[in-house]
Amino acid sequence: MSVDPHSFRNVMGRFASGVTVVTARNATGAPVGLTVSAFASLSLDPPLILVCLNKGCHDLAAFQTGPFAVNVLSEDQEAQSRRFAGPRDERFVDVETTTGGNGCPVLPDSLAIIECRTDSVVAGGDHDIIIGAVTSLRCRPEKRPLIYFASGYNRLAEAPPEVG
Ligand SMILES: Cc1cc2nc3c(=O)[nH]c(=O)nc-3n(C[C@H](O)[C@H](O)[C@H](O)COP(=O)(O)O)c2cc1C
Fold first, then answer.
1. pLDDT digits (tens, 9 = 90+) for 3-19
2. Residues flanking ligand 1, CB < 6 Å
3. Are the CB atoms for 95 and 80 separated by under 8 Å?
4. Between 20 and 30 A from 159 (CA), which of 17, 38, 62, 103?
């Protein structure tokens, strides 16, 4: 049975996710980043995460080499999500960033920041699966997540549970 790409996109969009901005530095040291919802925890021991990046992504090489950072967006960062999916030369203009321990630009207001070195890269169709070994973590548990569902931004209706 062949799968129609439109239906595939539509059905997969029914899987609610958080939203991240994945950041790194390119070969010249300039900050790079893009909005990514294909992010997941992969392994606890050792701590590994993964992000799936389109093979056509301009700054793919920076993430294939690493290091990189995953900025998990809070509900008040929808503008950053839109910004980092828009024109590349505007992404870091007037956006507050600091430098993470691994040298990557990070968005300090994020709900969580996960710094990684690139562990490995696995080809997956038209995307690359970038596997990151986690080198540093920080979290702002009082913040609420930005949610992406059915091609639109959403927020949690109820307060999230307390986490330790
Ligand atoms: C909510 C949202 C989620 C996205 N998730 C991904 C993703 O998981 N992987 C990806 O490669 N692009 C994703 N994109 C698209 C990129 O952010 C966007 O296409 C970007 O412009 C591509 O990179 P480039 O312009 O740096 O080449 C997403 C965009 C949005 C708005």
1. 999 999 999 999 999 99
2. 19, 34-38, 52-54, 57-59, 81, 85, 88, 148
3. yes
4. 38
